[in-house]
UniProtKB/TrEMBL annotation:
<keyword id="KW-0067">ATP-binding</keyword>
<keyword id="KW-0808">Transferase</keyword>
<keyword id="KW-0418">Kinase</keyword>
<feature type="binding site">
    <location>
        <position position="80"/>
    </location>
    <ligand>
        <name>GTP</name>
    </ligand>
</feature>
<comment type="similarity">
    <text>Belongs to the CobU/CobP family.</text>
</comment>
<dbReference type="GO" id="GO:0005525">
    <property type="term" value="F:GTP binding"/>
</dbReference>
<feature type="binding site">
    <location>
        <begin position="27"/>
        <end position="34"/>
    </location>
    <ligand>
        <name>GTP</name>
    </ligand>
</feature>
<feature type="binding site">
    <location>
        <begin position="69"/>
        <end position="72"/>
    </location>
    <ligand>
        <name>GTP</name>
    </ligand>
</feature>
<feature type="binding site">
    <location>
        <position position="101"/>
    </location>
    <ligand>
        <name>GTP</name>
    </ligand>
</feature>
<keyword id="KW-0169">Cobalamin biosynthesis</keyword>
<feature type="active site" description="GMP-histidine intermediate">
    <location>
        <position position="68"/>
    </location>
</feature>
<comment type="function">
    <text>Catalyzes ATP-dependent phosphorylation of adenosylcobinamide and addition of GMP to adenosylcobinamide phosphate.</text>
</comment>
<dbReference type="GO" id="GO:0043752">
    <property type="term" value="F:adenosylcobinamide kinase activity"/>
</dbReference>
<comment type="pathway">
    <text>Cofactor biosynthesis; adenosylcobalamin biosynthesis; adenosylcobalamin from cob(II)yrinate a,c-diamide: step 5/7.</text>
</comment>
<dbReference type="GO" id="GO:0009236">
    <property type="term" value="P:cobalamin biosynthetic process"/>
</dbReference>
<protein>
    <recommendedName>
        <fullName>Bifunctional adenosylcobalamin biosynthesis protein</fullName>
        <ecNumber>2.7.1.156</ecNumber>
        <ecNumber>2.7.7.62</ecNumber>
    </recommendedName>
</protein>
<dbReference type="Pfam" id="PF02283">
    <property type="entry name" value="CobU"/>
</dbReference>
Amino acid sequence: MKQAAAGFSSPPNDVWYQPGMMILVTGGARSGKSAYAESRALALPGTPCYIATAEAGDEEMTARIAAHRARRGPPWREIEAPLDLAGALAASDGEGPRLVDCLTLWLSNLMFAEQDLDAAAARLGEAVRGQQSPVIFVTNEVGMGIVPENRLARRFRDAAGRLNQCVAQVADEVQLVVSGYPLRVK
C-alpha cells in the first residue's frame, strides 16, 4: 500500500548517523518494513544502494520486484546478491548507505542452493565488521505463528530465527514494524 510508504517520507525523529552503523528492521509480511528501511537509508548521507536478495522466479515475484523498484526510483543504485551477500557488502562499502532487502529471502536462496547456512552467516558476520558505510538489513519475523507441519518449513523458521538473533545482537538499532508503524526494540 502506498499509504505506509508515504508515512515515512520524512526522516524519523531519532535518525542518527555514525560510520559503519547497522540497523535491523524486522516485521511480518506487508508490515511496511521495506518502506521504513528505505526512508532510513534516504535520511543518511550519500547515495543509497539497494542490495536485492530476491530472484524473479515467476511472474508474481517479477511484479513484486518491479513494484519495489518503482517505489524507490532515483537516486538508488542496485546490486543483485541472491547468494553472495558478503561480497556485495564488501564491494559497496564506502559508497553510501546500503539497504539489504531481505535476509529471509537470502536464507531461502541459500537453502535451495544447498549451501552451508552457518558458513554463509559467518561470512556475513565478517563482512559487516569494520564497514565504513551504514547497513540496514530487512528481515521477516517468522516465528510468531504455529509450528510448521513439514520439516523444511521448520528448518527455515529455525534458521531465520537464529540469523535474526545474531544480526540483532550486533546491530546498533533494531526496529519492529507493525501495521506500518516502527517500534524501537533496541
